[in-house]
Amino acid sequence: MRTDLETRLFEAVDAGFDAQVAFLSELTSHPSIRGQEQSAQTFMADELERRGFDIDRWQIDIADIQHLPGFSPVMGPYDDAINVVGTHRSQTKTGRSLILNGHIDVVPAGPLEMWDSPPFTPRIADGWLYGRGGGDMKAGLASNLFALDALTACGIAPAADVFYQSVVEEECTGNGALACLARGYRADAALIPEPFAEHLVTAQLGVIWFQVHLKGLPTHVAYAGTGANAIEAAIPLIAALHEMEHRWNAAENRTDDYAHMDHALNLNVGKFEGGDWTSSVPAWSIFDVRMAIFPGQSIDAAKAEIEQVICEAARDNDFLRNSLPEIVYHGFHAEGYALSQDSSAKAQSAIAALDGAHRATTGQTLEREAITATTDARFFGLYADTPALVYGPRAEAIHGFNERVDLESMRRITKATALFIADWCGTEDL
Ligand code: ZN
Q: Measured in angstroms, how far is the CA atom of residue 174 from the centroid of ligand 1?
């Protein structure tokens, strides 16, 4: 039997759903790849302000966060890295406070000709919205906002402070979420609707980004034997890194959440550049690598092993032996995080509240999933003693071509989120 409040909240989500889809379409049309998030953040700030939230909009200052645990090194300046937080202040403050977090940044779209339609011109077909960032994770930003709207439509508000966060930098460092912590935002729980198919994420991996810089000896290709090819020299180094990946994935290294996965840790060479001229032996190359680690695995130890593996492989190369590769860290320095390991009463009751909200919405048991990626949940869970629930809609081809999000799934997540807010925070009359 549905309670009266459940029925009213569901009807409110349904009544607002066309507006929610229009909101998602407009948000997805902002090409908010790294460095170009401003127009999307302006849109978010306007939407929050229109609803009466207190708006905090600021530029991330590296000096505020670089000493904090969880900080990731960055390559460029943060002149254009703007966070937006909208705060709902409760009149009664009788409930538990909540952070609703989502990231506004999206990954680059890749070659446009591989999309069926332009990535930043969202289109809807067969119940899916297509577009870069629609799934990862603008549908989540939409569900957070329209879940709160549903409460408003019912004449109620959360009986605790709620902080609606739209952050940058999730896809490369997490420094946007870290900047929210540094600014003092704290709550009794955090909800992050990343697109993991309406499952509750019980564990996430850590991620390390690094670059390997190789030098070579340039000569005319007619005398290639006297030169040293900095591009071809990378191949055995990459092979050695994949051997390391294989070792790290061995059964004895896996944590409980990942015991059933043969290959949770993926090493990806994501970018490669080098050389200047087709008929010159290349004097340089740079490749960018992403490697994952298990929750509890030390970043420093992982880095030391990465460096050792690269240097050992380089010593097999006559030229590199005397000109060892340089390893540069930029981007993710992310530890793993497992909500499943949080035995606090706060975590247990937050999970129970979400279990109840999901069941009331879908009639199903909330499934658990250990994911092979990272999310901003780690900042709340590891560095702020705040259980972070990652629970969002079904999406496909995130980071790929024809990214799409299931709109009915977004509707269910919005309903469950509205129930979760009402339960976790309690309610007061508007
Ligand atoms: Zn995401």
A: 11
Cα 2 to middle of ligand 1, angstroms: 32
| CATH-assigned architecture of domain 4-204+337-429 | 3-Layer(aba) Sandwich (3.40)
DSSP 336: P
Which CATH number, 3.30.428.10, 3.40.50.150, 3.30.70.360, 3.10.20.310, labels domain 206-334?
Answer: 3.30.70.360
Radius of gyration of the chain (CA): 23
d(CA 103, ligand 1 centre) in Å: 7
Give the β-pairing of 200-203 and 368-370. Answer: parallel
10-residue averages of pLDDT along the chain (430 residues) = 91 98 98 96 98 98 96 88 98 97 96 93 98 98 98 98 97 97 98 98 98 91 83 97 98 96 97 95 96 96 98 94 95 97 97 98 98 97 97 96 97 98 97
Cα gap 107→39, rounded to integer Å: 16
CA of 151 to the centre of ligand 1 (A): 26
Distance (angstroms) between ligand 1 centre and the Cα of 170 equals 7
* CA 197 to centroid of ligand 1, rounded, Å: 13
How far does the centroid of ligand 1 lie from the alpha carbon of residue 171, in Å? 7
CA distances from 196 to 268, 370, 398 (A): 21, 10, 11
- DSSP one-letter string for 177-236: HHHHHHTT---SEEEE--SSTTPEEEEB-EEEEEEEEEE-B--BGGGGGGSB-TTTTHHH
Hey, do 4-204+337-429 and 206-334 end up sharing a CATH topology, with the first three levels equal?
no
Neighbours of ion ligand 1 (CB under 5 A): 136-137, 194
Q: How far is the CA of 54 from the centre of ligand 1 (A)?
A: 25
Domains of the chain, by residue range, sit at 4-204+337-429, 206-334
SS3 of residue 86 by DSSP: strand
H/E run at residue 317:
none
Q: How much distance in Å is there from the Cα of 387 to the middle of ligand 1?
A: 18
The rounded Å distance from CA 25 to ligand 1 centre is: 17
Q: Are 224 and 281 in contact (CB under 8 A)?
A: yes
**Cα(193) to centroid of ligand 1, in Å?**
9
